[in-house]
Amino acid sequence: MINPNLSKRQSESYRCLTQLDASVAEAAKRSGLDSLLIELVKIRVSQLNGCAYCLRMHTRDAIRLGESAERLAVLAAWWESQYFTEQERSALALAEELTEMPVPEPRRWDDGSLTEDQAAAVAWQTVVMNSWNRLAVFSHYPVAP
Predict the structure, then answer these.
(1) Which CATH number fits domain 25-139: 3.40.1030.10, 1.20.1290.10, 3.40.50.150, 1.10.150.390?
(2) How far is the C-alpha of 38 from the C-alpha of 104, rounded, in Å?
(3) Torsion (CA) 86, 90, 92, 94 in degrees, nearest 10
């Protein structure tokens, strides 16, 4: 079975994705989004995509930034809990919409909690995170204790 490690097979493309990731992170910061909210988006997108490598990395990053175990435990069902702010709920809904690409329905994230720049930052972060997840899952990045 062929499972090429994409980061090694086309290193220039990998470098471009890394540069895009850095650009998107800077735009998110300029938009006023909290770093912890961005980590929640990365974790939720990784949950939806089943990417263990990115889940471990971004969960560790979120904990380092002060995220609680309780919020991380309910992130997969964020809409059923009262742990998340309106802005976080909007960002998570937007990230899910972009990741799952459902049949068009009312935009449950578009409630005024995010500015246009913040919505664009979350959207770009989701696009990049989906790319990282697909790269890691396809390449079978090792995830061991």
Answers:
(1) 1.20.1290.10
(2) 24
(3) 180
Residues in the chain: 145
Q: What is the DSSP letter of 77?
A: G
> 145 in helix, strand or coil?
coil
Q: What is the pTM of this model?
A: 0.83
Structure-token match 């913040």, residue found = 118
Nearest to 71 by CA among 54, 91, 87, 85: 85
Q: What is the pLDDT of residues 80-122, one digit of tens each?
A: 999 999 999 999 999 998 898 766 666 777 888 889 899 889 8
For the chain, the domains span 25-139
Specify the residue for token string 């992170």.
Answer: 25
Residue type for 114, please?
Answer: L
Q: Fill in the amino acid letter for 103.
A: V
Structure token digits, residue 138: 């396809």
